[in-house]
Amino acid sequence: MTKTQGSRVGCTVDPADPIGAAAERGAEAIQILLGDPQSWNKPVTLYPDGAEALKQAVKDAELTLYVHAAYVINVASANNRLRIPSRKLLQQTLDAAAELGAAGVVVHGGHTTKNDDPELGFDNWRKAVAGLEFSCPMFIENTAGGDHAVARRLESIARLWDALDGYDVGFCLDTCHAFAGGEPVETVVEKVLAITGRIDLMHANDSQGGLDSGRDRHANFGEGAIAPADLAAAVLAAAAVGADFVCETPGAATAQAADISWIRERLAKAE
Questions:
Q1: Alpha carbon separation from 1 to 5, 101, 216, 265 (Å, rounded)
Q2: Distance (Å, rounded) from C-alpha 56 to C-alpha 189?
Q3: What is the average pLDDT across 2-15?
């Protein structure tokens, strides 16, 4: 089996019926949320029969499960009232994902403010990781916008990885975020690998916004601003290092199934 054949392709699905949604879309990998992503509430499994039943259902369906942490989490923040609850919620999410047998938890890099020392965000990440119990693997995701984002620009990601040296932290590369964040997609995988040494998961998305627009608005493949050839180059480069793929693209089952097929067709041509 080649590395590209080993990559699993899927999408974000309804957490109440992830197995049915995966079957409808032809997904091998699924990503779910554990509750309202804009809420500070403790993560919950929305699958009607509970966590253990979902874990078994995922296994029976031969799927790979990823969990996306709440969007409110910002462990880089200088604000104690934001940073401390963020650490707590991140740990709760890791533990809840572990109960589901998830392959990883994706969390955004977060940000500081214009009045903060830029180094503070990286140091806060180091302190957070040092205090976490990694009951499940964790992947930090690059973000699309914000001048003070910890994981938008490659130079910031490099500083973050320097701060996390010695810790087993993974990376999730979002192609829309990279492009909107100012990085040409056709070369971004090579550049990220030079920094992190790994890409565990790719959020494969086209972008409604242009290069360096800072807009976190995903598009279906071929309907956004990223050239299809450039997106294909990124997909193949990520597959070469064993990354799985999750599409976070708009539309119902038909549109997402088409995006999954688009990736599979590119991988098949490379074999």
A1: 6, 24, 35, 17
A2: 34
A3: 81
CATH at residue 78: 3.20.20.150
Structure tokens at 234: 């990124």
Q: How far apart are CA 146 and CA 148, in angstroms?
A: 5
Domain count, the chain: 1
pTM of the predicted model as reported, rounded to 2 decimal places:
0.95
pLDDT in tens, 151-181: 999 999 999 999 999 999 999 999 999 999 9
Mean per-residue pLDDT, 182-196: 98
Q: Are 120 and 80 spatial neighbours (Cβ–Cβ below 8 Å)?
A: no
The answer, yes or no, to whether residue 3 has pLDDT greater than 50, is no
What type of residue is 27?
A: A
d(CA 178, CA 184): 7
Contact 12, 54 (CB under 8 A): no
d(CA 122, CA 162): 9
Mean pLDDT estimate for the chain: 96
- Expressed as residue numbers, the domain containing 137 is 3-270
Query: Which residue type sits at 152?
Result: R
